[in-house]
Amino acid sequence: MRVDRSAYDVLTEDGPARLPALPACEVTVGDWLAVTDDGGWALLPRTSLLVRGASSGVSRTQPLAANVDVVLVVASLSVPIPVRRIERLLTLAWESGAAPVVVLTKADLHADPEAAVRDLEPHAPGAPLVVTSAADGDVAALAPYARPGTTLVLLGASGAGKSTVVNALAGPCRRRRGRRRRP
Ligand SMILES: Nc1nc2c(ncn2[C@@H]2O[C@H](COP(=O)(O)OP(=O)(O)OP(=O)(O)O)[C@@H](O)[C@H]2O)c(=O)[nH]1
Ligand SMILES: [Mg+2]
After folding, report:
1. Which architecture characterizes domain 49-60+63-179 according to CATH?
2. Which residues have C-beta within 8 Å of that of residue 111, sequence separation ≥ 6?
3. Residue with CA closest to ligand 1 atom 32
4. What secondary structure does DSSP assign to the chain, as a single string?
5. Ligand 2 midpoint to CA 75 (Å)
6. Is the shortest distance between the CB of 134 and ligand 1 below 6 Å?
7. How remote is the C-alpha of 117 from its chain's centroid?
8. What is the pTM of this model?
9. Does residue 164's CB lie within 6 angstroms of at least one atom of ligand 1?
10. What 3-state DSSP class applies to 3?
11. Ligand 1 pocket, residue 110 CB under 6 Å
12. In this predicted structure, what is the pLDDT of residue 41?
């Protein structure tokens, strides 16, 4: 769940635990570890790995998240669309092994969201483009990409609307779980 220099916060069947970090081992958020009762652990194979800096040619790359199924590249329709940033994040997502989806938020603040989609389409080949207005909780267009058991990561500039999308997606899940719980 969280990686510090000296320790990892992990979630086990018995609840949260803290494991000592090993210097040479690049564990990251989303990794699955096989853990023994005495605190030993081993890193399990990954299905995907998001890495910062992989395609920009910098010498030191930094793992961001592992085992992600879908990367939501989030941008706001309330400001000019950051096309180059979206292209960069799409590259990062494709290289990770996860499936990218472009999410254009704040449709309520844009006169013609469909025109914005048409303009962006040539810059996002192979990635679905989804328009949302998450402030009023309307993220229905994301339902095909946020099925139960799917792990999502959201990338995008500060203020793009990532947390608002997460809250809109998580709200109904929390209510469903609550109803199922037994006394
Ligand atoms: N009108 C409108 N406002 C929105 C929408 N989505 C988000 N906002 C507003 O935009 C602001 C930024 O949204 P956040 O969800 O906090 O953005 P963020 O991407 O999580 O930003 P950081 O956490 O700083 O990276 C907040 O004031 C939201 O209420 C939307 O669909 N429509
Ligand atoms: Mg946020």
Report:
1. 3-Layer(aba) Sandwich (3.40)
2. none
3. 106
4. -EE-SSEEEEEETTEEEEEE--TT----TT--EEE-TTS-EEEPPPS-EEEETTTTT-S--EEEEES-SEEEEEEETTS---HHHHHHHHHHHHHHTSEEEEEEE-GGG-S-HHHHHHHHGGGSTTS-EEE-BGGGTB-GGGGGG--TT--EEEE--TTSSHHHHHHHHHHHHHHHHHHH---
5. 12
6. yes
7. 21
8. 0.88
9. yes
10. strand
11. no
12. 85
User: Which residue do the tokens 């990338």 mark?
Assistant: 155
From the CA of 134, how far away is ligand 1's center (Å)? 8
Residue ID of nearest Cα to ligand 1 atom 7: 161
29-63 tens-digit pLDDT = 999 999 888 878 889 999 999 998 755 566 677 89
Q: Are 78 and 110 in contact (CB under 8 A)?
A: yes
The partner residues of 74 in beta bridges, in order of sequence, read 103
CA-closest residue to ligand 1 atom 25: 158
Closest CA to 90 of 81, 104, 101: 101
CATH 3.40.50.300 domain range(s) in the chain: 49-60+63-179
Nearest ligand to residue 156 Cα? 1
